[in-house]
Write a structure and sequence with these properties.
The chain is mainly α and about 190 residues long. It has a single domain, classed as Tetracycline Repressor, domain 2. The chain is built from nine helices and no strands. Helix 6 runs antiparallel to helix 7.
Length: about 190
Amino acid sequence: MRKSRAETAQTRGRIVSTAAKMFLEKGLSGVGMRDIMAAARLTQGGFYRHFASKEQLVAEANGAAFDRLHDMLASETRGLSPPEAVERILAIYLGQSRGKKQPYLCPLAMLGAELSHSDRQVRAIAMNGYQRLVELVADQLGHMVRREALATASGILSTLVGAVTLAEIAPDAATAHAILSNARALIKERISLA
């Protein structure tokens, strides 16, 4: 019996959601299609009914992860003053480090090096996700002209991504904490939130 379009879309969504979670937790190379399909409670043969390649799934999974992160940050900062919103963004973004199981992990921090070796479509989705996050931060820097706010937000996001990436590979919790604390202090000083 053939599945309806709604059932097919629901199955595809389940695969994308499962893949996004697994990629963020284990890396792109650490997860095979067999693993994703098993975790989604589907047969491996069903993969190609939904996707042409692993790269297509990687692209969609990263797009979904960026959407989830952006929407969560926008929701968490809605109604806050700009300084409070920036503080909240810093706390949430830096809070994804050191193995904490969070539903909003950022592909840039968790998969950055692997994304750089992905195909053009995957890299374009990563850069689009980056740009959306930069704009979200820049929206909180209304005391600056827009061009300066975007440049500053780009530096903030780059600092956040780098800090989380380094904290993830730090040899111990104390080193990771120092990396994250230093990044937070530098950002706050740069935008006069200290």
